[in-house]
Amino acid sequence: MQLSFRSIHALGSDYIVIDESDRPTRFSQESRPKLASALSDRRAAAGADGVVFVDASQSGGDASLQIFTPSGHESELCINGVLCAARYLTDKLDKERIVVATPTGTVEITRSGDIALPMFTSGFVDVQRGLAPPYVEASIPVLWDTTLDQFTPSGPYYAVGIGVPHLICVVPKIRLKQLEHTGTLANARQDIFPTGMNVTFVARLSSGVCYARTFERGGAGLTSSCATAMLATSYVLCHLPQSAHELRQRVFCPGGAADCELGGAATHSVAKLTVPCLYAYTAEIGYQPDTFELSGWLDGRCNDEEALAYQRFKEEVGLDEVESRVVDED
């Protein structure tokens, strides 16, 4: 059988978007995780940070979304995945504002910018200080300004929930091997984090500016960007004494920079962000419906104009200079 899809990325975090509303038959709930794992595997024909299934909304919005990680687990909320789907939907529906349904509720997305570099702003989403079961084992105290002796560095760590769990550690310099080790350990310790954990190291650059790097749960590992992690980072920095009430943050990551904004009166309990979302390619691929083994590409078209606009964007925000200051590859 054949499958048409689009690869779309938000700051380099790429998602395969599959529009089921255009298909004569929809994938079953049992088959979607298997297909997502096959398509996300970067050793195979495609490769992605996850897969977004788009279907007609049953609640009056523009669409409903299901997002799966490379390991085949459904993500409760993935803003990057939502934004990538929004890029596709705003083109398809010829709209600048859409509302989509996710397992954690509806998200509004607004489109702006020019044709070659369209920018997408999420609506405000809820931010929760600390984590509760099932994201942490019931006996674990609130993780906020908490040292974890078994991790390196030992902290302090700050737990934040934005539909999915995040563990944030503010460091003077981001050491990638250390982050990968800590992220792997956190996701192996199901006695502490039963559903896995997104781990982010963040380095402050100046007032309202930081660099964040995330190890994502669900088999994604080190990714180019994680929208909910950038929002969680902004929330943590806003509540630290040395940077209190910085309600706007420019958060750098390997894919560029996102502009984050906090709201929600005294607690700043909601957040939104703005990033570019661009087509990487459109394609059609063969697959076996019983095993989901992928066969050869039938088509694959890259968007060179958007790729060039994205490269200019990274140069204009000064990404290389920022990374040279705060990132250690060793």
Task: Please characterize this protein's 3D structure.
With 330 residues, the protein is of the alpha+beta class. It folds into two domains: 161 residues, Diaminopimelate Epimerase, Chain A, domain 1, CATH 3.10.310; 149 residues, Roll (Diaminopimelate Epimerase, Chain A, domain 1), CATH 3.10.310.10. Helix content is 22%, strand content 40%. It is built from six helices and 22 strands. Strands 1-2-3-4-6-7-8-20 form an eight-stranded mixed barrel, surrounded by four helices. A two-stranded parallel sheet has the order 14-22. The longest helix is centred in the N-terminal third of the chain and has 15 residues. The protein is globular. The mean pLDDT is 92.
Task: Summarize, please.
The protein has 6 helices and 22 strands. By secondary structure, the chain is α+β, with helices and mostly antiparallel strands.
Furnish the topology, listing elements before pairings.
Blueprint: E1 2-10, E2 13-19, H1 31-40, E3 51-55, E4 63-68, E5 74-75, H2 79-93, E6 97-102, E7 105-113, E8 118-122, E9 125-126, E10 128-129, E11 144-146, E12 157-161, E13 165-170, E14 174-175, H3 176-188, E15 198-206, E16 209-216, E17 221-222, H4 227-238, E18 248-253, E19 256-263, E20 270-287, E21 294-302, H5 304-316, H6 319-326, E22 327-328
Parallel strand pairs: 2-3, 4-6, 13-15, 14-22, 16-18
Antiparallel strand pairs: 1-2, 1-20, 3-4, 4-5, 6-7, 7-8, 8-20, 9-20, 10-12, 11-12, 12-13, 15-16, 16-17, 18-19, 19-20, 20-21
